[in-house]
Amino acid sequence: MTDLASLQRFAVSGSITIDAGCGGMPRVSIATPLCRGEVYLHGGHVTSWQPAGQAPVLWMSSQSWFAAGKPIRGGIPVCWPWFGPAAEAGKPAHGLARFADWDLTSVATAADGTVIVVLRLALTAPSSEVILTVSFGRRLDVELSATNTGSTTMTIGEALHTYLAVGDVRRVAIRGLAGARGQDRVATPFPLTGPETFGVAAETDLLFNAHEGDVVVDDPILHRQLRVAKRGSRSTVVWNPWVAKSVKMVDFGNHEWPGMLCVEAANALDDAYQLAPGASHRLATTIEVL
Questions:
Q1: Does the active-site annotation cover 212?
Q2: Alpha-carbon distance 85 to 88, whole Å?
């Protein structure tokens, strides 16, 4: 694990703290007039963003692991270089990045007060370099840039698996997917077309392909709208485990599912892409309270 003392050069008194978070894992914590937030080096995982005057925007499970070799539950997991089950037996679901310890390479403050944190992950299998740039301000912007440093073309599936905090998922309205083609993946996958507005009334696992637009979540309980925009993404995933599935997940509190909704910027399944040697690709999501 990274030596905390060596990271203190990135700290700024009163606004940027580098310390041991849950499980003793290194994290960068942000506290500015614009927002509060935090990102863990384990998994390159954003676990908090709360703009000034607002309730927290990201959901975290009270039962989440914070341990080596385990993913963090909630916030924004980085799913890379594959999405969903691995093609090879014994490999973890949703890729390698969310299990790895990333390097902190820079922390800077922009002219408008936004704090920009940059993390780096170098992998040998597949041979690649991944850069995560997280901008904490009035908006939260998370960009994942991946470069193929090897000699063969890679097939990449990926997602920024954002868990939004909501007052009650049964009361939200989701807009921005009208006409988008996709599939319901809860049981036997079947095709669907996104409606103008829809809600969540059961276990939900929807994958919309060839969708590049914004999604807005209307939350009447927290009296706010959350807009999830994206770049470099051809897939949008909407997910909630509901009752039965959440009980089966040991790192997910049995009664916590009403407080979260995943809206994910992704390139998944049919939208996976080929990354040639030396080539790079950027996937990003921007979240704001309207």
A1: no
A2: 9
